[in-house]
Specification:
The structure holds two protein chains of two kinds. By secondary structure, chain A is of the alpha+beta class. Chain A is built from 13 helices and 19 strands. Chain A folds into three domains: 91 residues, Beta Barrel (OB fold (Dihydrolipoamide Acetyltransferase, E2P)); 111 residues, no CATH class; 205 residues, Chloramphenicol Acetyltransferase (2-Layer Sandwich), CATH 3.30.559. In chain A, strands 9, 12, 15, 16, 17, 18 and 19 form a seven-stranded mixed beta sheet that branches. A four-stranded antiparallel beta sheet of chain A has the order 1-8-6-3. In chain A, strands 5-4-2-7 form a four-stranded antiparallel beta sheet, with no helix packed on it. In chain A, α10 crosses α11 and α10 packs across α13. In chain B, the strands form six sheets. In chain B, strands 1, 2, 3, 4, 5, 6 and 19 form a seven-stranded mixed beta sheet that branches. Chain B has a five-stranded parallel beta sheet with strand order 8-15-9-10-11. Classes of the chains: A alpha+beta, B alpha/beta.
Amino acid sequence: MSIKVLMPALSPTMDKGNLKRWLKSEGDNIKPGDVLAEIETDKATMEVEAVDEGVLAKILVPGGTDDVQVNREIALIAEAGEDPKALAAEMAAQSAGAVSKVEPAVVASALHGVGAPAKAAPAQPVASSGESGARIFASPLARRLAKQSGIDLTKIEGSGPHGRIVERDLRGAPRASQRSQPQAAPVQPALSDAAIKRYFAPDSFVEIPHDMMRRTIARRLVEAVNTIPHFYLSVDCELDALLKLRGEINAAAPKAKNGTPAYKISVNDMIIKALAMALVCVPKANVTFTESALLQHRHADVSVAVALPDGLITPVVRQADVLPLSAISNAMKDFAARAKERRLKPEEYEGGVSAVSNLGMFGIKQFAAVINPPQSSILAIGTGEERAVVKNGALVAAQVMSATMSFDHRAIDGATGAELLASFKRAIENPLTLLGV
Amino acid sequence: MAEPYDVLIIGGGPGGYVAAIRAAQLGLKTAVVEREHLGGICLNWGCIPTKALLRSAEIYHYLRHASDYGLVIDGKIAIDPRALTMRSRKISAQLNSGVGFLLKKNKVDVIWGEATIVRPGEVAVTKPNKAPMEPQNPIPKGTLGEGSYRAKNIIIATGARPRVVPGLEPDGRLIWTYFEAMLPDEIPKSLIVVGSGAIGVEFASFYKSVGADVALVELLPRILPAEDAEIAAHAHKRFEKQGIKVLAGAKVTKVEKAENGVAAIAESEQGSRTLEAERLISAIGVIGNVENLGLEGLGVETDQGIIATDSHGRTNVEGIFAIGDVAGPPMLAHKAEHEGVICVEAIAGLDPHPLGRAMIPSCTYCNPQIASVGLTEAAARAAGREIKVGRFPFIGNGKAIALGEPDGLTKTIFDAKTGQLLGAHMIGAEVTELIQGFVTAMNCETTEAELMDTIFPHPTLSETMHESVLDAFGRAIHV
């Protein structure tokens, strides 16, 4: 029997991905563990590894194909004793017969979650509401149910004949409508691509098509700004004690034979730890907002924005409140290195309760960041600089950084936010607490 | 070795041959293995020949009641059992050869014999190990014979056969199944029918119409257990009025055979009573034909004569599918046909429509006819639905009165909140031809509003459907 290579699902929510390129060619011998191809999801590039031994008989989906459905056959491996050529020929003759189908309804609902607005429109020919007044094909029952439960049919993809919306498409819709509320506004771009381009001379720009990451950033941040009522609190933190402690900790790091220290804690690592501890100290701020409840977390998963040459990604330091600084530091180094190669796994950058975004290295004094759903806050860190401060009536020099935190007001009230930020400031200015009590 | 088939179907009944034709339409190389008769039970020993018999009974009934219609028949009206069954067999033969023609036209190979799945991808065909039911329609010309056949996909569509329980073993003489009941040499003077599902009540109705003394025995507390209770009660009353002895909640515990008759002991809460009759028909259900297919060796999952499948007919073994009766109830030809089409389309990589299980209609051709689709009132309530129920009696319908068929009822069940049509249940003249109006409506997901707005032609029996919908919302005109 030949072995079918299927498009892998790299995360539970992934329903399609881009097949970036094949690293093996038809006719190549394959050993278990060999990297066959690279798959690009919204945020990462992943490798598809061979599990079985054989010969790559036929590539069914060429490299560079976008939006390949999960579980679709992408290649065929001939096992020992099989003639790869015959297999390839048979496969060609068989047409698309064996392609495993994903339930259309599932695809339909998931479609709302992926893809940039511009791309989503052609994918939903039925309910596409691009032009106002476009006819929606829906069964009478579906129309009535939608009306009764306040579901917007333009947001529903039909699975009936010719894409008609039928009753079953609305079954998940109470959930879908909750999710689609946030998406309601952003689906419509303010201006069409062509209208925007008209403002610029045709040869005055280079057009860089969106990759999956750019689309995801666009979609998620529009969703965040449209659905999360942000408010902002700022605080100045003195860093002298923290910088001194950092120097001592790093100086004490055990060294390997080649002289490499076991860890080198950065200021940012200490900020992650301080935020995590503050979140655990102020449980009311250590929450995630859902439509029906606040999820109050026992630990603090803190994500950290990592800038990439063409985007950004936010790996999550899980349970940063209990991790020692050295572990946070080493995790961040690993994340940063793999993020640059786009090798992070989805479970490494999804979730989190709060986030740190640090632009201090660029000399930015102060800024406010956009919350990354499902998180409920994000801490924007400015540069640490020597400033004149007044202490006991005298002007003295101190290392100071400004921190501005954005909160989701649905989940966190002003006083709670202030309490969190005060707790954070206390941890930064009394850094021994970061070493664990 | 010959090129393997894309699809090989075991069984040429309504599920199998329809699947084969659909496969051929999709350009798949297709074969059907059949051991006895193209068209299966439905066309040879079920749906079709019984409809032929019932038609004769119906005409006989009208002739005997000619005076009701202002007609005088001067002379004897009698039944010729031989001619009556011959007509039934002729109709069956005509359709049987029609299936052969359709398969040939679609270039589907017909392989004659008994199929065993050797392994996924390979089927061995041997001589039929079951003697055919006589009279057997002629085996079509140009069929392939015994041998080994390869197929990428194998669909099991072997159907079902009468269920046998101890004490009621059919003997072909005194204790009949539907096979013998379809070929009476003469009309028995008296008859016991055990089982009041569709098959049971149809034969009870037929034999009553042609003059037999009929007792209908049902184990469950009421006859027609699958139908809406109100419809079943209506039927019960009508049957009794016609002179059928109806015993519900009674179990046949013993059958004693005599020279030309049986004595059956029926026990119920009211006590034990002995029923005597010349013949007994056992119509206590059917079971799937899962034997001798090699399923055990392949590890294909079966449960009490039914092959476990997913919504596209896939079994737990790759490359092996099952459709129709053998894949589980409701054991109806039209359900088998749809499953066959869905299965083949999935094999071809299309995205077939899901089988609307809740919308499979059911028709029983007793007198009066019964037809239904969707939830019964009890089932809808049990499902926790808040419902509105509409009823319209045939006595309020002009056409029914003109036909001399004023006895009937059309009942509709709607979800009170959404107006979704949940079920429709009809009893009366020609309702088997009417029900599809409701089936279409359900499939299109109409609410009461569209049905109310639909113009039903006057004068027709279909107006009872409109009125029933109106009645559910307190708006019926003619009651």
